[in-house]
Amino acid sequence: MRHFFVGIVAVLCCVACGNAQGGKGTADKGNAAHKTIVLSQAEFEQRVAKFTGQPAEWKYLGDKPAIVDFYATWCGPCRRLAPILEELAAEYEGQIYIYKVDTDKAPDLARAFGIRSIPSLLFVPLTGTPQMGQGLIPKEQLKEAIDSFLLKKQ
């Protein structure tokens, strides 16, 4: 009986997250207005890194720093973060990439990076060790991370 109630609570939480923003999804490849770039696992391996299941061993393939947003379409906080990332992609156009990876469509990739909660953001500098951030990070904190960690502005 206890498992039944836990299951009901989990379903209700998923439904609440799924309806929090009126069912609107995140950026997609077909809409030119979007500055973020949605990647499949294969595209991730072409543009970001060839992952072997050990993300600590991968080498970044890009020519600009990047943020990789691990998200799901049903996640309310992910949908609230999406327009912020779109704004940042426009503000920092030509300086950084902002990629999006749907964890439901790329579960092996999410598992390889230890994604247990979403949204999770992977900050990838051109040199140095990538850093992971989790949750709905405010725009000002994201700008600070971009300026100081990714772009190394003083």
Question: What's the topology here?
Answer:
Layout: H1 2-19, E1 37-38, H2 41-47, E2 66-71, H3 76-91, E3 97-102, H4 107-112, E4 120-124, E5 131-134, H5 139-150
Parallel strand pairs: 1-3, 2-3
Antiparallel strand pairs: 2-4, 4-5
List keywords for this structure.
single chain; 154 residues; alpha/beta; Glutaredoxin; five-stranded mixed beta sheet; 5 helices; 38% helix; globular; disordered N terminus
Highest-level CATH class: Alpha Beta
- Count of extended strands: 5
On the 0-100 scale, what is the average pLDDT?
80
Oligomer: single chain
Biggest sheet, in brief? Answer: 5 strands, mixed
Please state the second-level CATH architecture: 3-Layer(aba) Sandwich
Account of the protein in words:
The termini are far apart. The chain has 5 helices and 5 strands; from the N terminus they run αβαβαβαββα. Helix 3 links the parallel strand 2 and strand 3. Helices cover 38% and strands 15% of the residues. A 5-stranded mixed sheet has the order 1-3-2-4-5, covered by helices on one side. It is an alpha/beta fold and 154 residues long.
Brief summary:
This protein has 154 residues and is α/β, with parallel strands linked by helices. Helix content is 38%, strand content 15%. The protein has one domain (2-150): Glutaredoxin (3-Layer(aba) Sandwich), CATH 3.40.30.
